Amino acid sequence: MNPFERRRLGRSQIELPVLGMGGAPLGNHFLEIADATADDTLAAAWEAGVRYFDTSPWYGRGLSEMRMGRGLYKRPRADFILSTKVGRIFRPPADPVAFDASDRKWPLGLKFEHYHDYT
Domain range holding 50? Predict the structure, then answer.
């Protein structure tokens, strides 16, 4: 199998590489990683030929998306595919003290509240 072979996504005209990089670990999903480690991981994936990157605002309450953006913003936009999820909107907490005392925060993520909006 060629990991960089492209296949059509469902009935759409979008073609994705078979291999991509998932962003959950960049959001400290499994364990806390340093910004430099996240940057090095994205750079290594790029150097290995990865051009499909997937993330979500849920991974680290926006941390994965921020790290992906930082790692890809200087790359030619036409050279990669970036996907994310919809429906969760993040904002700073209205009451930071109550937020910190709640179970709503992602222990190793950014300090954002979320609400759902699928419009």
Answer: 6-86
- Classify strands 15-17 and 6-8 as parallel, antiparallel or unpaired: antiparallel
Instruction: Give yes or no: 59 in active site.
Output: yes
The domain total for the chain is 1
Residues in the chain: 119
What pTM, to 2 d.p., does this model score?
0.84
Does residue 110 form part of some domain?
no
Q: Which of 52, 59, 73, 118 is catalytic?
A: 59
For every one of its 119 residues, what pLDDT tens digit does the chain have, with 9 covering 90 and above?
A: 788 899 999 999 999 999 999 999 999 988 899 999 999 999 999 999 999 999 998 888 889 999 999 999 999 999 999 999 888 888 888 888 888 887 766 667 888 888 888 88
Residue 35 lies in a domain: yes
